[in-house]
Amino acid sequence: MKSIRNLYLSALVLLLFSCSGQQGTTVGSTPEVEKRVEKLLSQMTLAEKIGQMNQVSAGGEVGNYADALRKGQIGSILNEVDPVKLNEFQRLAVEESRLGIPLLVGRDVIHGFHTIFPIPLGLAATFDPALVEEGARVAASEATAQGVRWTFSPMLDIARDPRWGRIAEGSGEDTYLDARMGEAMVRGYQGTSLDSTSMAACVKHFVGYGAAEGGRDYNSTFLTERQLRNVYLPPFEAAIKAGAMTLMTSFNDNDGVPSTANAFVVKDVLRGEWGFDGLVVTDWDSMGEMIDHGFGEDRKDVAEKAVNAGVDMDMMTFGFLSHLEELVKNGAVSRKSIDNAVRNILRVKVMLGLFEHPYVDVEAAKAVQYAPEHLASAQKSVEESVILLKNSGVLPLKGGQRILVTGPMADAPHDQLGTWVFDGEKAHTVTPLKALQELFPGKVDYVPGLTFSRDKRNNFFDVMAAARRADVVLVFLGEEAILSGEAHSLADLNLKGSQSELLAALKATGKPVVATVMAGRPLTIERDLPNVDAMLYSFHPGTMGGPALANILFGKVNPSGKTPITFLRTVGQAPMYYSHNNTGRPYRGETLLDDIPAEAGQTSLGNTSYYLDYGAYPLFPFGYGLSYTTFAYSGIGLDKEVYKADDTITVTFTLANTGKYDGTEVAQVYIRDLVGSITRPVKELKAFERVSLKAGESRTLTVKIPVQELAFVGLDGVKKVEAGDFQLWVAGDSASGEALSFKVQ
Ligand code: GLC
User: Is the CB of 204 under 6 A from ligand 1?
Assistant: First the structure.
């Protein structure tokens, strides 16, 4: 009897696979996995199915959840990382519930678990997907050792407004860079094949959350379908194709529809077009917040809307637990929808091996945390993420000098870790002060001047006196961790407190001043640059920021970071990004404020797209970063002048290190589609490569770009390459280089 039943189930599984409208599976499932899922599903009551769709933040004592666990009312918990407690949670679920389904344990492991890496915006500045993948693998090995098997990362929200606090958490403004970083994190978290160190990735926040109006978090977005398909969706599609096992819906309402009930993006695009068969979870109470949005009457209403839009799991609204049974009984929600949701949840749990290995070895977990190789990986990530914005020649420093260390971020072990750090411990942070004191014992004076970034102290006599006794001043500035991240938007991006005044005071001493900024976003630092001889920019660097910055300051490492986000001259320019459309009246060097004559005629200035007071250009463009050496591009050529749609463009160029230091350049390739069925950006990044060259060395490189990479969704709503004229640049940032022309026929 049993064999006939299994035969039936196998046939059902194969049928499911073949007719689910999906080309196989995006999470890498197999017929064996599907068979186990179907078998378990067939044994579950409606109440047990609904229990799997319920996620609970598990603070406090495990015993508080025992009853719900025994009843199978919890499918996942988040915010508990103590391995002893997690083993007890799993024991209750596995050994004291009817079907013994293990819990999926989630946590925001955003840029490291215990060993903290640079914030994701800093990781993006490395333009090094392989290194970012390595860091995600480190995070997974530390977190899974303690029982965390699901991270709510990578955050793929394209952000083009630095007022938005969560710009810290993503990979910046560019679709191509964001996609490469997202793929790398998915591979790193989940591993090349699933095992006990695999942590399910969760690509978030689906979708368009970073376009919040005014840069105010949680605010409405108004993205058209074309903008979604050409700018905001591609990184998610890339991460899903990389095998991401889960996805999180976003808080924002886009064009009036909250993402947590947006069937167009969740059902039509994610499931229908991309064939995603992983798990979709809401954001924290984003289901319940649809009542506040004015999109639902009550929790029953929003639960119905969410599950019918394709959401599988409810984070902290408890709408599914409270109302789904009634909604199924009254026909508002089909049993098929419930089964599909639970299928997606069980699939992830089976594939992670949770049924076989729900428990962790508490002792073994300790040895993994802060392992030396983890700290080394974190330090390398910082070294590659730091961006050199200015250098009058004072860097790199030589040893033996008397050093004054000052500024609110010089010895800020908590704030140096940055936003979204729940498990990193400040006791493990190595600050710049500690690193420099260790490198140069007896040679480092420390006078903070300001004790935190918002400190408004207004006299710096002690700092100035100490500066006069020093050969060089190293000042560490920026933002406390709390000033970026979720719900932490700013309307003014200047250095807070009296940090700029501190720089002016240091400038007045006449000593060489080297500033390092640690922040969660690109601050507006134009007014500070004249007061420093050099500036390094380090998006909150994490645990190993100190040793990494010391290595850069003293030339052991040559900085190679590039801006993953445009640096504005003033916040009034927001939003400003490199891949903008040309408009009908692009700026042509029109007159600026101070040059406008009195009683100037109404049309005398030239009517183009710019600011009278701040012009049309940012302080630093996307992809920008200096080095201690210099690089020259030459011999840039294409293998053809005319390409077919299924061709591959072969770009060759020679890169020379023309300075006296070994260094690494991020060579970038940009392309412009001059005429389209819709207006197209003036440039789009289509390839980048980190190239390390010895002083004086040059190398000829080849980059291949399939013509299909130029496809976009045009006026007819179809994604394709449109024939016509194109331009291509190879350069060290988005504002440099000479254009080469080519055609696509
Ligand atoms: C938060 C965030 C989301 C995070 C979740 C769980 O509100 O929006 O990114 O993963 O809740 O902490």
Answer: yes
Active site residue 157: no
| Spatial separation of the C-alpha atoms in residues 616 and 608, rounded to whole Å | 10
Which residue's CA is the closest to the ligand 1 atom numbered 11? 284
Instruction: Characterise 539 by phi-psi region: left (phi > 0), alpha (psi -120 to 50), beta (else).
Output: beta
State residue 323's pLDDT score. Answer: 98
CA of 79 to the centre of ligand 1 (A): 11
DSSP state at residue 651: E
Predicted pLDDT at 366: 98
Rounded average pLDDT over 500-519: 98
CA-based nearest residue to 49, from 39, 41, 58, 38: 41
State the pTM of this model: 0.96
Query: Quick one: pLDDT band at residue 12, thresholds 50, 70, 90?
Result: low
Q: Helix axis angle, 499-508 relative to 461-469, nearest 10°? A: 40
Could you tell me the distance, in angstroms and rounded to a whole number, from the CA of residue 283 to the centre of ligand 1?
Answer: 6
User: In this structure, what token pair is assigned to residue 285?
Assistant: 């109470």
> Per-residue pLDDT for 19 more than 50?
no
Query: In 30-41, which positions are buried (b, 16+ CB within 10 angstroms) versus exposed (e)?
Result: eeebbbbbbebb
Nearest CA-CA partner of 740 in 655, 638, 648, 643: 638
Q: What is the Cα–Cα distance from 591 to 600, expressed in whole angstroms?
A: 11
* Dmax (CA) of the chain: 96
Distance 414 CA to ligand 1 centre (A): 21
Express each pLDDT in 275-287 by its tens digit.
999 999 999 999 9
Q: Tell me: the pLDDT tens digits for 697-728? A: 999 999 999 999 999 999 999 999 999 999 99
DSSP string, 222-247: ---HHHIIIIISHHHHHHHHTT--EE
Q: Which CATH architecture has domain 631-744?
A: Sandwich (2.60)
Q: How far apart are CA 627 and CA 249, in angstroms?
A: 40
Q: Is the pLDDT of residue 735 over 70?
A: yes
Helix pair 299-309, 319-329: axis angle to 10 deg: 80
pLDDT at 428: 98
Structure confidence by residue, pLDDT tens digits, 577-615: 999 999 999 999 999 999 999 999 998 998 999 999 999
Q: H-helix or E-strand containing 182?
A: helix 175-190
CB 211 within 8 A of CB 158: yes
479 Cβ inside 6 Å of ligand 1: no
For the CA of 286, the nearest atom of ligand 1: 7
3-state secondary structure of 650: strand
pLDDT tens-place string over residues 241-276 = 999 999 999 999 999 999 999 999 999 999 999 999
* 120 in Cβ contact with 136 (< 8 Å): no
Ramachandran sector of residue 189 (left: φ over 0; alpha: ψ -120 to 50; beta: rest): alpha
Tell me if 131 sits within 8 A of 125, measured CB to CB. no
Residue 203 to residue 286: CA distance in whole angstroms: 16
Residues 6+ apart with CB under 8 A from 742: 638, 640, 641, 642, 643, 649, 725, 726, 727, 728
Whether residue 543 contacts residue 428, with contact meaning beta carbons closer than 8 Å, is answered with yes
| Paired tokens of 621 | 């463009």
For position 21, what pLDDT does the model report?
Answer: 37
Tokens 């990494």 belong to residue: 548
Domain boundaries, the chain: 246-349, 631-744
Question: For residue range 624-648, what is the model confidence (pLDDT) as tens digits?
Answer: 999 999 999 999 999 999 999 999 9
- Find how far residue 458's CA is from the centre of its chain: 37
What are the start-end ranges of the H helices in 430-493? 432-439, 461-469
SS (H, E, C) 97-114: CCCCCCCEEEECCCCCCC
- Residue 10 has a pLDDT of 52
Closest protein CA for atom 6 of ligand 1 = 284
Integer Cα distance of 40 and 499 in angstroms:
60
- How far does the chain reach from its first CA to its final CA, in angstroms? 63
